[in-house]
Amino acid sequence: MFLSVFEMFKIGIGPSSSHTMGPMVAAARFLDHLRAQPFAVHGLHATLHGSLAFTGVGHATDRAVILGLAGVTPDAYDADRAEAALAAITATGRIEVPGLGALTFDPARDLVFDYGPPLPGHANGLVLRATDAQGDVIAEETYYSIGGGFVLTAAELAAPAASAAQAFPYPFESAAQMLEMARASGRSIAAMKRANELRVHGPAALDAGLSRIWAVMSDCIDRGLATEGTLPGGLQVRRRAPAIARALRAEAGLNLAPPHTVNDWISVYAMAVNEENAAGGQVVTAPTNGAAGVIPATLRYWLDHVPGASRDRIGAFLLTAAAIGGLIKHNASISGAECGCQAEVGSAAAMAAAGLAAVMGGSPEQVENAAEIALEHHLGMTCDPVKGLVQVPCIERNGLGAIKAVSAASLALRGDGTHFMPLDNCIEAMRQTGADMSAKYKETALGGLAVNVPNC
């Protein structure tokens, strides 16, 4: 099992990695498939199933699919170009597809929300079709957006690619294997993860990519702390991060802030990111968009508030976090539509706690302990976004997830790494809990807070 740090941390756009980025990526893959075919395409059609249908509008899934079919990708998203393309498609019922020409696509007719049972492979399914001049289907593919921007076709989901784990020097597929390899090699988790990455990326490319990830994360925090206004979607949720940050800076200047105010800094860093995400801004999946604020907030907290923190260790933080995230994804899930928010904010908190413990000098055992503590205390957390928007409770939830991550790392560093519940068992408990959880609480906006809103 090998998931690159650049698969766990993808640069993209909000508000959702599974509902926005994933469908956009699926559309791009479908276009590539069509370009390789000998027949002429005349029109396109898309059907959204499961969670993509129920919360698709709130997560901008419709926009994502349309833009993806127009050739827009998350990593090269340009807001002005996107708006112009959407306006033209809506007005003309035609879509300009690079390499395929002008094809018929009327969003009102050719983009269907199917509110019936989800497709069998995953809660986030979509079917893309191409038609000829007579309207007959000449190509069809089913895609599943499985969380964190990862996309698989139905065939890929049914028959996963053979593992190339043995090609890597440290092919751990569980936390127990990871710790055993760390003890045998004398290497940290970050060092082992780096050795694996170097089989795929050169040293310069790896370091540049890690720097780029943090730069985008940090810039997102700064934009969120500076941008005022109301978030889109109809809930009239006001951006709170700028005002909170101003108040915190003013209190610091007067030297009146109580010690626990640092929790407010951690929260506001996370909220800044998730307010940007809710507004459709550029974020890094960490491991998902809905949980994008936890890891940046924890890392910014360490850099700005912990004596002795050094930017030279940012790479170690991210590599350690990616190693933990890879284990969770491989053995359970990072998808809210599959396992609830325990799989999103819970996974992010575990990753952040591990990264923080690592850069604060923790042993591999303490790092594993930190991840377990953070994940354990998110077990059972539902995904119940009000109106299907990644705003309530998602924005504040990231702040509390970051605080839990810091607390988990601190508790782990107070011990010697020995503890009762192994991380592997906690991950399995999360998988089982997600399997048992009602679909109402898995990103469908059919239960929980999503149906208990004020009448106003």
Write the layout of secondary structure elements.
Elements: H1 5-8, E1 11-13, H2 17-35, E2 43-50, H3 51-54, H4 61-69, H5 79-92, E3 94-97, E4 101-104, H6 107-110, E5 111-113, E6 124-131, E7 137-147, E8 150-153, H7 154-158, H8 175-185, H9 189-197, H10 203-226, H11 241-254, H12 261-278, E9 282-284, H13 294-305, H14 314-331, H15 336-339, H16 345-359, H17 364-376, H18 394-413, H19 423-436
Parallel strand pairs: 2-5
Antiparallel strand pairs: 1-9, 2-6, 3-4, 6-7, 7-8
Helix pairs in contact: 2-4, 9-14, 10-12, 11-12, 12-13, 12-18, 13-16, 13-18, 14-16, 16-17, 16-18, 17-18, 17-19
Structure write-up:
With 456 residues, this protein is of the alpha+beta class. The chain has two domains: 17-158, 60s Ribosomal Protein L30, Chain: A (2-Layer Sandwich), CATH 3.30.1330.90; 167-451, no CATH class. 51% of the residues lie in helices and 11% in strands. The protein has 19 helices and nine strands. It has helices spanning 5-8, 17-35, 51-54, 61-69, 79-92, 107-110, 154-158, 175-185, 189-197, 203-226, 241-254, 261-278, 294-305, 314-331, 336-339, 345-359, 364-376, 394-413, 423-436; strands at residues 11-13, 43-50, 94-97, 101-104, 111-113, 124-131, 137-147, 150-153, 282-284. It has a five-stranded mixed sheet with strand order 5-2-6-7-8. It has a two-stranded antiparallel ribbon with strand order 1-9. A two-stranded antiparallel sheet has the order 3-4. The model has no long low-confidence stretch (mean pLDDT 95).
Key features of this structure:
two-stranded antiparallel sheet; 9 strands; 456 residues; alpha+beta; five-stranded mixed β-sheet; 51% helix; 60s Ribosomal Protein L30, Chain: A
